[in-house]
Amino acid sequence: MNKPTADEILQGLRQSLPEGEEQPNRYTAVMVTAKRARQINTYYRQLGEGGALEGLGVPMLPGGTRNYLSIAMEEVARGEVTYRLRS
After folding, report:
1. pLDDT higher at 1 or 15
2. Could you read off the pLDDT of 23-76 as tens digits, one per residue?
3. What single string gives the DSSP state of each residue in the chain?
4. Is 58 part of a structural domain of the chain?
């Protein structure tokens, strides 16, 4: 079972709910979390491609995990990620 749970992620999305948006559902939670995980992945890949950083490994991530999806799920559950749905 994953931590945080789906309900905790939905609660985090409700905290960061933009004005006038409808309540988030599980589909929204999956899309927001996946997009954030891709952003984290891209960021750390770019760090590794820099000329001065070639001899260094990927920095340690908070919580001791290197799984980008787990990091994204934790951020969303804490309400640190905002989103906006396009019409």
Report:
1. 15
2. 899 999 999 999 999 988 888 787 765 545 454 444 445 566 678 898 889 989
3. --SS-HHHHHHHHHHTPPTTPPPP-HHHHHHHHHHHHHHHHHHHHHHHHSSTTTTS-PPPPGGG---HHHHHHHHHHTT--------
4. no
End-to-end CA distance of the chain: 33
Residue 83 CB contacts under 8 Å (≥ 6 apart), including other chains = 13, 16, 18, 28, 32
Tell whether 55 is covered by a domain: no
Residue 20 resides in a domain: no
Query: pTM for the whole thing?
Result: 0.76
Q: How many distinct structural domains can be found in the chain?
A: 1
Per the domain annotation, does 76 fall within a domain?
A: yes
Amino acid, res. 83: Y
